[in-house]
Amino acid sequence: MERPRYLVIVAAGSGSRMGGEMPKQFLTLGGRAVLQRSIDIFRKAVGGVRILTVLAPSWQAYWRDLCMQHRCYYPQTLVDGGLTRFHSVRNALALVPDEAIVAIHDGARPLLSPELAGRLFQEAETADGVIPCLPVTDTLRCLDMEGETGYGSGRPLPPRSEIYAVQTPQVFDAALLKEAYTLPFEPEFTDDASVVEKYVRQTGAEKRIVYVPGERINIKLTTPDDLRLAEAILASR
Ligand code: C5P
Predict the structure, then answer these.
(1) How many angstroms is it from 154 CA to the middle of ligand 1?
(2) Would residue 153 count as lying in a domain?
(3) Nearest atom within ligand 1 for CA of residue 9
(4) 155 falls within a domain
(5) Ligand 1 proximity of 106 Cβ (cutoff 6 Å)
(6) Measured between alpha carbons, how far is 26 from 193 in angstroms, rounded to an integer?
(7) How far is the CA of 196 from the centre of ligand 1 (A)?
(8) 129 lies in which domain range?
(9) Which of 111, 175, 178, 199 has the fewest Cβ atoms surrounding its Cβ within 10 A?
């Protein structure tokens, strides 16, 4: 029997690094809200996907109105966001059945290709977790900061060839992800793979978590420059 497929789209952050009143997931990008674009990619790529949209309670009425305005009548369940991304994901997982395959995606990543979304779900049929990542191209350094000015800290990092930037969507066996999210919160849990890997290390469970190539274009809109870049990318398509 085909396993149910779920998308948990996390969009309960305040987007403070973007500036402005409006959280970044509701900003307009090429005529549509960033969050609508992110969801549309999965509706196109993953047949029958069930959508759980995680939003701060205070923005849920706004989002409903926006969906009506743009005639987005597809079924979605709104879930209350939590204090951090970790708590937001955990709230949504309560609604995901154990037998499902579930993708967790940042609402502020509206540029990935439907091909990547579809491929990650497909690979998750035979793995416990599939995570998109890319080798970093910048040189990374640990700094001690005073305001916006930094000083070399001397703290070593692994060689750049061993460091990868990790993206979303991250796609998992739902039973494993739900188990992992019973761990207590830690500040370094800024994505889902870090939670699952901690759980696997702690329990010694034998699980296959694979890292596969992501997409350079799959940026997380964080600053006003990112939004301008996204507009330019859409215009060039
Ligand atoms: O802050 P950061 O950019 O890492 O957030 C990643 C994603 O997690 C964003 O889509 C944001 O809306 C979401 N988030 C959330 N609940 C929070 C904080 C962030 O759903 N409390």
Answers:
(1) 31
(2) no
(3) 10
(4) no
(5) yes
(6) 26
(7) 18
(8) 5-133+166-236
(9) 175
Do 38 and 107 meet the contact criterion of CB atoms below 8 Å apart?
A: yes
Q: Which atom of ligand 1 is nearest to the CA of 109?
A: 10
Mean pLDDT across 101-107: 98
Q: How far is the CA of 112 from the centre of ligand 1 (A)?
A: 17
Q: Name every residue whose Cβ is closer than 8 Å to that of residue 65 and which is 6 or more positions away in sequence.
A: none
Q: Give Cα 231 distance to the centre of its chain.
A: 20
CA pair distance 77, 93, nearest whole angstrom? 12
Which percentage of the chain shows pLDDT scores above 70?
100
pLDDT tens sequence across 32-88 = 999 999 999 999 999 999 999 999 999 999 999 999 999 999 999 999 999 999 999
pLDDT at 115: 98
Ligand 1 mean position, distance from CA 2 (Å): 31
Question: Domain holding 191: CATH number?
Answer: 3.90.550.10
Total domains, the chain: 1
Does pLDDT of 16 surpass 80?
no
pLDDT of 1 strictly over 90: no
Share of the chain above pLDDT 90, in %: 95
> Is there a cis peptide before residue 169, judged by omega within 30 degrees of 0?
yes
- Which residue has the CA at smallest separation from atom 1 of ligand 1? 13
Residue bearing the CA closest to ligand 1, atom 21: 84
pLDDT digits (tens, 9 = 90+) for 138-195: 999 999 999 999 999 999 999 999 999 999 999 999 999 999 999 999 999 999 999 9
Asked if the structure places residue 150 within a domain, the reply is no
- Nearest-CA residue for ligand 1 atom 6 is 106
